[in-house]
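pasting for ref
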Amino acid sequence: IQRITETRHRLIDLVKREKPSRIVFSDVGDLIEGFTSSQDSQQLATNQMSIMGQVDMATTMIYETLRELSKHCDNISYLTVGSNHCQWRVNKQKVGNALDDWGVHIGRTLARLCKEVGLPVTFYEPAEWDESLVHDVFGDNFHRIGLFHGHQARRPDQVPNWIQGQMLGNGPVSSSTLFISGHFHHLQVRELGNTDRGSSRYWVQAKTLDSGSSWYRQNAGHDSDTGLVVIPLEKGKEFTGTVHVL
């Protein structure tokens, strides 16, 4: 809670300095720790909060952030996608459709709350059976964010293959100029082919704000630092890979 609060302060300071005309708040997934996604018993023993407590905490922390952002920008888009730790699962197996997901549920709750109090936030989620979406940032078909969690690939180096498959199969994010994902926790910024304008497409794998993973550290030998990734985009100007980590 302290780390997220401090990060929010840094984010608001950045927004005050840059004065953006619009903000895209991208939930890359895993807002909560589902207890039946993988190592069931370990997850139950190492998380201090229940599912209900986690959902309440995530909703509260994000709402407080959106409320603060709305004081400095009157055009905010909130994007959410399904993820492996938020999926509805029974005995580790996914059930329901792609929107049966705690992250999507939190997004819908935030949408109702923001509408009730009049915050300038528009919410977007994937189609019923999709785990990804594309968002036209300025509404001019120039910067198109393709958002997905990243669990579609087993390893980070397989994500570009999944993106190529999206393009070949005309998937939800096939038209994107900028791909954003989470899941693997460490920051990565990578060029991936060309846009229809001939400029470079980019994939940004975001950092995480969680406390790290002892399970991952024990198996891999290392872990990544926490952080919030901010991607500055300018209308009509090509993105060249610059990101900020708060």
